[in-house]
Amino acid sequence: MKIDIITTELKDMVARAIKGASCNKILPLTNYMGFEVVDNTLYLKTTDGLHYLTVCKDKVKCEDFACMLPVQTFAKLVNKTTSEHIILTVKDGVLTVKGNGYYHIELVLDENGDILQFPDTSIEIPEDIKAVKVKQPILQAVFDICTASLSKTMENAVLTGYFFDKNVITTDSIKLCVYSVNVFKRPALLSVEMLKLATLIPEEDISVYFVDNDVIFKTETMEIAGAQLEDIETYPVEELESFLETEFPSNCVVNKGLVLSALDRLNIFVSEYDKNTIKLVFTKDGMKIISRRTKAEETIPYMESESFEEFECLVDIQQFKDQLNALATDSIDLSYGSPQAIKIVEGKVVQILSLVDEE
């Protein structure tokens, strides 16, 4: 086997493919990359044990061949290569990489001494399953906007996923994000790992297939496959969407950059005794941000104010920052006055942050 490939092209393929490898010592396959040439198309395959990522490139001059490579070693070598081309050859169970020099990587062999191949992880798509056409920027927006509100614990496993239907919903029971976009035109519950892999897709147009509980994202250069999260029917959709009906007596608009800068400075004065909380005080002059136990406060002037009433509440500073950072806008449309939460709105996105109880 011999293949000559432009270094920048291989670097791009490997940089994407390695994102699918979890390199878990308990799961040996996750430490390897499948390297396969079929009908002059090169395929790089990786897995984290639950999701399978394939990156491909056509018009490669090479006979059919398949092997498994140690993913970290190969990826690091390719990344550090500065020659214009990389030439790969295989002889006697050893891959030789010719770039800036000559580098030899032993391939994985079976008990008979034959080169071991990456297992076939493809999911057969029945002819009657039609593709759902999705734009990659929409998936990227969902990831950027909704991830901050995902649950990071397995206490209620369904909350660790993105719920797709007429809205995209994420929540950790304290933060709630509702993005009004119907991505798949059907319900789905995807893990953060799967959606993160989908953001690696370079093409704008993606074909998505739902086969039983499996989901396949497919383009000319990438394929991502894996199962949805289980128990989608238990996702508390109606309960969460009912929070959108909560009444907030007052509303204001403030500059996001000023708020984030103030939060960074006040965070210096927030200690473990404060339980990560700060006080927001809505005054006639603006939104005052105060650390609870020390003398630190800043006032952010309103850009707009409607139905003003004085109000104060406690919020978790890090969760507040996470939700603000998920927004692309320069200003924050913030509603307040409810004893349970504050609400932030940006276009099709509604975020709700539960308040911290007074001690």
Structural topology:
Layout lengths: L1 E5 H11 L14 E7 L2 E7 L3 E7 L7 E6 H10 L4 E7 L2 E5 L3 E5 L25 E4 H11 L14 E4 L3 E4 L3 E5 L8 E4 H7 L6 E7 L2 E5 L3 E6 L9 H6 L7 E6 H11 L10 E6 L4 E5 L5 E4 L3 E3 L4 E6 H9 L5 E6 L4 E6 L2 E6 L5
Antiparallel strand pairs: 1-6, 2-3, 2-5, 3-4, 4-16, 6-7, 7-8, 9-14, 10-11, 10-13, 11-12, 12-25, 14-15, 15-16, 17-21, 17-23, 18-19, 18-22, 19-20, 23-24, 24-25
Helix pairs in contact: 3-4
Walk me through the structure.
The structure is a single chain. By secondary structure, this protein is of the alpha+beta class. Helices cover 18% and strands 38% of the residues. It has 7 helices and 25 strands. Strands 13-10-11-12-25-24-23-17-21 form a 9-stranded antiparallel beta sheet. An 8-stranded antiparallel beta sheet has the order 5-2-3-4-16-15-14-9. A 4-stranded antiparallel beta sheet has the order 1-6-7-8. The chain is elongated and about 75 Å long. It starts with a strand and ends in a 5-residue tail after the last strand.
| Record field, number of beta strands | 25
Poorly predicted runs: none
Strand content is 35-45%
Cα distance spanning the termini: 70 Å
* Widest sheet, order of strands: 13-10-11-12-25-24-23-17-21
Cα shape: elongated
- Specify the number of helices: 7
User: What class do helices, strands and sheet pairing give?
Assistant: alpha+beta
Q: What characterizes the major β-sheet?
A: 9 strands, antiparallel
Mean pLDDT: 94
What's the alpha carbon Rg, rounded to whole Å? Answer: 25 Å
Distinctive features:
alpha+beta, 25 strands, elongated
Short recap of the structure:
The chain has 359 residues and is of the alpha+beta class. 18% of the residues lie in helices and 38% in strands. Helix 3 packs across helix 4.
